[in-house]
Design brief:
The protein is α+β, with helices and mostly antiparallel strands. It is 32% helix and 21% strand. The chain has 15 helices and 21 strands. The strands form five sheets. Strands 6-2-1-10-20-19 form a six-stranded mixed beta sheet, covered by helices on one side. Strands 12, 13, 14, 15, 16 and 17 form a six-stranded antiparallel beta sheet that branches. Strand 1 (13-16), helix 1 (20-31) and strand 2 (36-39) form a beta-alpha-beta unit. Helix 13 (332-339) crosses helix 14 (343-359). The protein starts with 12 loop residues before the first strand and ends with a helix.
Length: 458
């Protein structure tokens, strides 16, 4: 990364944050002729996006048709609305769904090919697009986008923390103050985008809005401290739905570093069992339902159980295994002994599950997805999981043009927000695969709208 000494005093657009939304917006704005700078407080680009592992949801995509999957935007809209407790911003959701397939195609232009499909909780079709190599989607996306941003000649600085948004006499946002290793600098611009992510790693903000979750561990990177919310709030921006914090059902919290175990593992056929070796929930219900079911066991979490067939279809398992999160058993009895669950029951549970897969009917819990293969190929595997704070659905109130609204509902001119820093799209529960989609769809929209604003205000 260039040295912050090379940071210029003036750009057309400043993008704060270098996760999926920031990198997408920078590329899109650059395509439309803007001189853009990306400012990232962490030492590396990628933000929380780089930790995502399941996929990027889209409906009516060319990839789906290539796989013979006939999907429609209406179902994607309705299922996301239902998943969000009908509390989603409808206009935002409509824009999101209608631009999802286009976002997959736009990424292809930059050699970012999400050509494999899986399914996540709350969805009826395979909409989660991921790399054919099945490597975790987030790192795949952000590492390649960072390369493309540099290739495009866009200035990108790490170790550069924005501490203040600046406004002119007409209250139009026209720059930032940024803390760098070379001291505080003022950088002017015609537009500023907040793409700073959520607040899943901020004990202070969580304590303010959801004191009941303050002791939960988090899957978020340590920089997810809600900086963008504080910057916007200082300009009287409206925050919305801040109490909607998502707990992800499957995280390994046994180590100092919390690891998210991607929903795609269940999408490929893994099941959840309790200490008694029995299933207790439809594993692909929404995250809210599955998390509550695990918490209500009062048994120190639960176990994800899968076989070699499932493992072959979810490449992230190789990483989980490498860092010691995966227990191995030559057969189910061996696995049960290693993880301390009832062996006889586990064998019965797997036999019943395999029967459900064969008939396509899960009489016990009504699961209808992630039933492509029986669990019948040894060796068998288990991962011990607990729910953990994963995503913050609330945030800055924006409109479909990614403009930030103040507490009166008026547009704060020159200020935009996209990605997890914004609120409203997901309602009270985010569907797995929708956050990566949000970063690209609304990152692109932010890039487009910033270019439009700059053109209109020359």
């Amino acid at each position: 990364m260039p040295n912050t000494k090379e940071l210029k005093n003036k750009y057309d657009a400043i993008v704060v944050g270098s996760g999926g939304a920031g990198l997408t917006a920078a590329l899109q704005a650059h395509e439309l002729g803007l001189n853009v700078v990306v400012l990232e407080k962490n030492e590396k680009t990628g933000g929380n996006t780089s930790r995502a592992s399941s996929g990027m949801n889209a409906s009516e995509s060319l990839v789906q048709l290539d796989e013979g999957i006939i999907d429609n935007n209406h179902d994607f809209y309705e299922e996301t609305l239902k998943g969000g407790g009908l509390l989603n911003d409808r206009a935002m959701l409509k824009y999101f769904v209608n631009h999802s397939a286009l976002a997959i195609s736009w990424l292809m232009k930059y050699g970012i090919r999400l050509t494999d499909l899986t399914i996540t909780g709350g969805m009826s079709k395979k909409r989660a697009h991921r790399p054919a190599s099945m490597e975790p989607v987030g790192f795949y996306l952000t590492s390649r986008m960072t390369t493309q941003v540099k290739k495009a000649g866009i200035d990108i600085f790490t170790g550069a923390k924005v501490t203040k948004l600046l406004q002119d006499a007409k209250k139009r946002v026209n720059g930032v103050e940024v803390e760098t290793p070379d001291g505080i600098k003022t950088v002017k611009a015609k537009v500023v985008l907040l793409a700073t992510g959520g607040f899943g790693a901020s004990k202070d903000i969580i304590k303010k809005y959801r004191p009941d979750l303050v002791d939960y561990k988090t899957t978020n990177q340590p920089g997810a401290t809600g900086d963008g919310l504080k910057l916007a709030e200082a300009l009287d921006a409206q925050l919305m739905q801040m109490n909607f914090i998502q707990v992800h059902p499957t995280a390994d919290t046994d180590n100092p570093h919390v690891y998210l175990i991607g929903e795609g593992l269940r999408g490929e056929g893994a099941i959840l069992v309790n200490k008694n070796g029995q299933r207790f929930v439809n594993e692909l219900s929404t995250r809210k339902i599955v998390s509550s079911a695990i918490t209500n066991l009062h048994e120190d979490g639960a176990y994800l159980i899968f076989d070699s067939g499932v493992r072959a279809h979810f490449a992230a398992v190789e990483f989980y295994d490498q860092i010691g999160l995966v227990e191995h058993g030559t057969d189910l009895a061996d696995l049960a002994k290693k993880i301390g669950v009832n062996g006889a029951n586990l064998e019965k549970t797997i036999a019943a599950w395999n029967k459900s897969v064969a008939t396509g009917k899960d009489k016990e819990f009504g699961r209808t997805t992630g039933m492509d293969r029986e669990l019948d190929r040894g060796p068998y595997f288990a991962i011990h999981i607990h729910p953990a704070i994963h995503y913050t659905m609330g945030g800055i109130h924006i409109n479909t043009e990614t403009q930030v609204l103040d507490t009166n509902g008026d547009v704060i001119e020159g200020l935009y927000a996209a990605g997890e820093v914004s609120g409203g799209l997901h309602g009270n529960n985010r569907i797995g695969g929708n956050s990566i989609a949000e970063t690209v769809i609304f990152g692109r929209q932010a890039g487009i709208q910033m270019a439009k604003f700059v053109r209109e205000n020359k």
